[in-house]
Amino acid sequence: MPLNHEAVGITTDPVRVDWTTKDTILYALGAGCGVDALQFTTENSKGITLQTLPSMPVVLARTPILTMIGDIDWTKLVHAAQHVSLHQPLPPKGSANNVATVTGIYDKGKAAIVVTETVGRDAGSGEKLWTSTMHLYIRGAGGWGGEKGPSLRSEPPQRQPDASVTVATAENQALIYRLSGDRNPLHSDPSFARAAGFDRPILHGLCTFGVSTRAIVETMAEGDAANVVSIAGSFAAPVFPGDPLTVDMWRTDEDSLTFRTRVKDTEVITGGTCQFASGELRPRTSRKEPG
């Protein structure tokens, strides 16, 4: 069946997800963390407590919601935007139940935007852990005369960033990141990538999102993931494994900032925002840039 434009409001049954410290470390490695971020990549280093990157719910918030909205040509689907809210610091291991809802389907003319929201609750206590909101852009699925929805693009502040950090990505970055669950062949199969219009596999947008999150935590939150309560951004252009990512950050008040991520002069994440626990925006005055 074609895309179901009346699917707004469809909700999944609870889907359990379990994760271990191994999953937490693997996600961090996929997002580019290494020996200079042992709080994300080791669980047994003396004097260091393992933390979870605040963006990790993007791989934990798994449900079958996309199979419930009709047929999707996966070669025409790209991630348009992502928002993650953390209702409490995410533990390095745990269990949760995800419930996802289709909250919007918008007509962009030559494409459709499908918006889903997934709430993860601790499997034991029932307390909220995360809310993950995802915007998906599906080429060729628009044109039915539906509501256009909000724009996902925005301009950065017209002043110099308060901080800029450039982070290297590896040629095999997508191959590491996909081990956290996103096995879309767009990021690994050259023939699939060519069918989607790319010369070679591209980096997961959510990997770029994770790299950006790590840079913000390191630069603006003293390396403490618990200081971040939400992070969001829109994907503006593809990234290829091996591209260096520059994250420009602007403070907006004492506990929030806006950011963009770019490859040289090309914005790849636009309209980024990050909210910190009250009063926890503490830029480091002396630090080594993430590498």
Give an account of the 3D structure.
With 291 residues, the chain is an alpha+beta fold. It is built from 6 helices and 10 strands. The protein has helices spanning 21-30, 38-41, 57-60, 173-177, 190-195, 205-220; strands spanning 15-19, 77-86, 94-107, 111-122, 128-139, 163-167, 228-235, 245-253, 256-263, 266-276. Strands 1-3-4-5-2-7-10-9-8-6 form a 10-stranded antiparallel beta sheet. The radius of gyration is 18 Å and the shape is globular. The termini are far apart. The relative contact order is 0.17. Mean pLDDT is 93; it is low at 285-291.
Nearest-angstrom radius of gyration?
Answer: 18 Å
Shape verdict: globular
- Uncertain regions spanning at least 5 consecutive residues: 285-291
Helix/strand class = alpha+beta
Helical coverage, percent range: 10-25%
End-to-end distance? 46 Å
Sheet with the most strands?
Answer: 10 strands, antiparallel
- Run of helices and strands: EHHHEEEEEHHHEEEE
Mean pLDDT: 93
Say how many strands there are: 10
**Can you list the strand order of the major beta sheet?**
1-3-4-5-2-7-10-9-8-6
Count of helices?
A: 6
Give the DSSP E fraction (strand runs of 2 or more residues).
25-35%
